[in-house]
């Protein structure tokens, strides 16, 4: 951590700050510049609060050199983490997983039918929302517990592990009991109470990036879960909010190599929410695989125009199968497989 | 709602869509363009899901003409709403409220001392966080229930109503019992389960704008609370996320006249979180009052450099008093008062 | 074009607007809603100025249904345009071009050496900046005319067509005479005087997307050039500005399928400027090819750490060759070739 | 400047970098951290290129402590600069200037009429565009030289100095001869060739902030003009591009106190382009004055609905007069005057 003092900072104030840092067991080195005095702080600086130091009016700014996350950091865990989701391995150098299913569970027949199609196409997990975060209170809010039951039955029918989104701490027991991969949606990426609660269970967590969160904030949210004891975290990019209007969000594929460099956690891509448009899903899926992603989570619906939510971004099963066929060929070029 | 069909949409598909809309009790008018066919849908279109209609591959796009919110909408409630917070009136044409206090409650002595200073300066409510949303799991997470108790004691000592942030549904009873104005923080603006739960109580809610949420999404979150039955909502702008690096966030003051036009709810401004820098707080506070805001919520700390969180953006009590003095003079110019 | 009037718009005002539109040879259809009156305007609406209509205080809003561009639009030009750059074909279903070279020309030896390496690796054009847009007036501003001469000599030595950025109208003669593909940089995407001047020549133009311009604005800038008579436009995405701090810009690969859908012009990707980090270039290059891009423009330098500008994002020649090798394999999977 | 080396950087590489910096006459201080080695560079670091140093693969990152601008910097010029525009003083502690006029000059009668209204209302300069940057090549592009002549005649009729936008270097002679305050528009903020040319004249320049440029980039563009020798620069904020859709741009008023802190140059606000909506102009104008701005530039048109461009954001003269009346009262509260 580098602390820059203002030009006119009084010596006693500088000494006071140095003293308070050294009292925490860290070492301080001093540099005197032309217009500034600069300290370097040496030691485990994750225990320091940069903003508290910046609150001192004699401090110009504070810059972290070391990343603020530890358990997530590849520096201290050089090998790829491989997360086991009910027998399906996510992460590592070889395998790429494809998850498919509808935005919302709409009934037993719908979800079982789609699950079979997903499996037939080569998908290895089934997604389906039972609790739905909707901008409008007047929109369909999901089937709730009933939807989770339908998912469980679809798993029975197909053997596919199931992924569903949790929105509230009071549903944790229901999810631990029934769901194989518990999704934290973009809007809850910084719902810290939920993250802490998920840190205490040992089910795998699919942590979506918030729609305007930096990669660092996202990794810090993963750190919340891991710091609680649950190290089974899979990251998922689903597009960020920008000024562009032709897509619902802007898919940021550069996160793939960055996350691989900064962290050992697996990362998968959601091209459906990222683009909001089924016509872009194939292209972005193939790009994600070429970029090195560990998997895809794609919306699939047998009747997109009848879907109760997000039909616009859903693929029909035959197109989903086509994406997997092409994706597999690209995966093989870079030494992986689907 | 205006629905534009693609150029080559087959007639039977157009008829099918018209039929399905008319079945919901709405009327459809048709326009034939050179390259497109366009419908106008007449009636209460809040019951239609624009995205579901767009999922049809023959539909080019769907545009809402009417706003998607009802209870929040000034169109159906032309007078300003005035919210009563333990006797303090927020909103309306005359009065402007100023709320002050520390980012975090750090102990009884600290909060009571600051509460007295806030009152002496002319503040009418006390803010103080007991449950703190922090990016890092290693940062101070707030005093919790102990902090709420300290706030209650500070209210006893000064008579100031208290404002504090709720982060989780399971704390609602504690907040209803103890807190006068329950804050929903920016990170929870779309925590829909929390919003629904707050819709069932009758304590006033201070709803902060999410750091990258549009004004429309913000009003829809207010609609969630109001649709549940709790019409005591105060909106609070606290800066949005942009590319600019010299400020923590970008304070969007144009929301003040926009919210006044679209809605009847009161709106207050948080210049402390918006800028992240105490040196900008006075300037932005005066600007907010001149822009027509109904109040300010400002971080005040008697020792910013010792603050456990966000000291950098906190004013000392004497500067807070100065902001109120200047702000009152500006308020009087535009026919209001603090 | 759909025009929505305010609820209380007087009838004579509505009639006046209808009259003024019909006077321009367009037809108007009327829809009466519950709270609004809506017109549909039928005909060539590119001659109408939406903002001028919105200036009327009785108008609620104006929405364009048809795209505001014509020559760029795939609707009126269904086949892919293939642009000929000194014999190299850019665009179409089969071929993918890779352009390589340094950010700045630094001298004859440097550029000729790199040109040979680019050619050996499989690159088909040479890039190199002679006039450099730099944020600081104290930074290296490019070699100017001398740099263009070095590029010309490098072309002689290798046969590679050359690409260089123009920053000012007064250099057009120099560029027409010497440069094969004239680049308009991101900062000049809306330098309309420059675009108009480039519309009058018949050299191919490489039009980069501005760092915070929408796809529609970008296509409108291409329309400026084409409307002037020069139809040889190649689009280039180089990252957009967002809140993310781990990358210099955010590469928006979803533009590839969108541009392919909206327009017939070729689109290539610049992964070097998009990421600002050579470690991300390979991953993003492969992703771009998988997404369907018609080419890549990549910074290559034989000594990145000695580069006078942007060395941080430059590949060494051997890594550039590696990107082409892997990219070719991916291209073949999707039925194309490099 | 603080340079952080990667953990495993070899000693000879570190020594090589230190040597190269010391060869430029700067001093280097070394800090050894737990996982990193950090240098502090002391001296005039504006001559170093941070990106060139970062290109070294052993360097983790480079952080500037000192600002990269010099002539713009308040550190080296503590008093406010006051710019003289044909006798009107802009900047300083006392006076606030208000500039009014139409977006585009549309004819002699129109501009002279509006000029008289602007003067009568209390405006001290006349704005009017003769060369117009328009997104569409099919939109009205301005009257050109004819428009400048109309502006000159309007000045003769009223005595108001005139402000107009320059778009291209080849018009500099025309502007120097005729225009009192030469505006560089947002789209040309980084048209560096234009900035350099304007650095060689001595007419005052009104430099608008680019729609997605940081404050630092904006100050660097001012530095370009000043480094060329022209120190008569006035900054103008006109809104930045964000995700929000209810306003055309987001007005960033926090730039006012920041610019005042970092620089000695005057700053004025353009609420018309910032909001794109005349209904927001009064509110944002008063806020700008309260925030400490040195002036306003407001669009005024005697018939907004007939305006050839941007009528939607134009005030009628009587509302413009009202803004000045209210603004003056607020100015007086903070010890200034209009």
Automatic annotation (TrEMBL), chains A, B, C, D:
Coiled coil: none annotated. It holds the Pfam family DAHP_snth_FXD. Keywords: Transferase. One of its GO terms (molecular function) is 3-deoxy-7-phosphoheptulonate synthase activity. Residues 1-66 form the DAHP synthase ferredoxin-like domain. It comes from the Bacteria. Its EC number is 2.5.1.54. GO terms for biological process: aromatic amino acid family biosynthetic process. Residues 87-323 form the DAHP synthetase I/KDSA domain. This is 3-deoxy-7-phosphoheptulonate synthase. The lineage of its organism: Bacteria, Bacillati, Bacillota, Erysipelotrichia, Erysipelotrichales.
């Amino acid at each position: 951590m580098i602390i820059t003092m203002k030009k006119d900072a009084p010596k006693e104030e500088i000494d006071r700050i140095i003293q308070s840092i050294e009292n925490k067991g860290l070492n301080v080195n001093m540099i005197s510049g032309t217009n500034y005095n600069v300290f370097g702080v040496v030691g485990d600086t994750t225990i320091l609060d940069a903003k508290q130091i910046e609150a001192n009016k004699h401090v110009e700014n504070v810059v972290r050199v070391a990343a603020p996350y530890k358990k997530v950091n590849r520096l201290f865990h050089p090998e790829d983490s491989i997360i086991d989701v009910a027998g399906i391995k996510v992460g590592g150098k070889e395998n790429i997983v494809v998850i498919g299913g509808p935005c919302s569970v709409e009934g037993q027949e719908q979800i079982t039918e789609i699950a079979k199609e997903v499996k037939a196409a080569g998908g290895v997990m089934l997604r389906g929302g039972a609790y739905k975060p909707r901008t409008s209170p007047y929109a369909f809010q999901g089937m709730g517990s009933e939807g989770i039951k339908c998912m469980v039955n679809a798993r029975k029918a197909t053997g596919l592990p199931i992924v569903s989104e949790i929105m509230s701490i009071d549903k944790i027991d229901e999810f631990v009991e029934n769901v194989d991969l518990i999704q934290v949606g973009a809007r809850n990426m910084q719902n810290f109470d939920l993250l802490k609660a998920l840190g205490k269970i040992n089910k795998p967590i699919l942590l979506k990036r918030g729609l305007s969160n930096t990669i660092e904030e996202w990794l810090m949210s993963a750190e919340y879960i891991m710091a609680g004891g649950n190290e089974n975290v899979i990251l998922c990019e689903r597009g960020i909010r920008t000024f562009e209007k032709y897509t619902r969000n802007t898919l940021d594929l550069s996160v793939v190599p960055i996350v691989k460099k900064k962290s050992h956690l697996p990362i998968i891509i959601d091209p459906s929410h990222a683009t909001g448009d089924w016509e872009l899903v194939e292209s972005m899926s193939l790009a994600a695989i070429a970029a090195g992603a560990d998997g895809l989570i794609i919306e699939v619906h047998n009747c997109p125009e009848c879907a109760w939510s997000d039909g616009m971004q859903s693929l029909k099963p035959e197109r989903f199968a086509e994406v997997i066929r092409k994706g597999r060929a690209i995966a093989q070029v870079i030494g992986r497989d689907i």
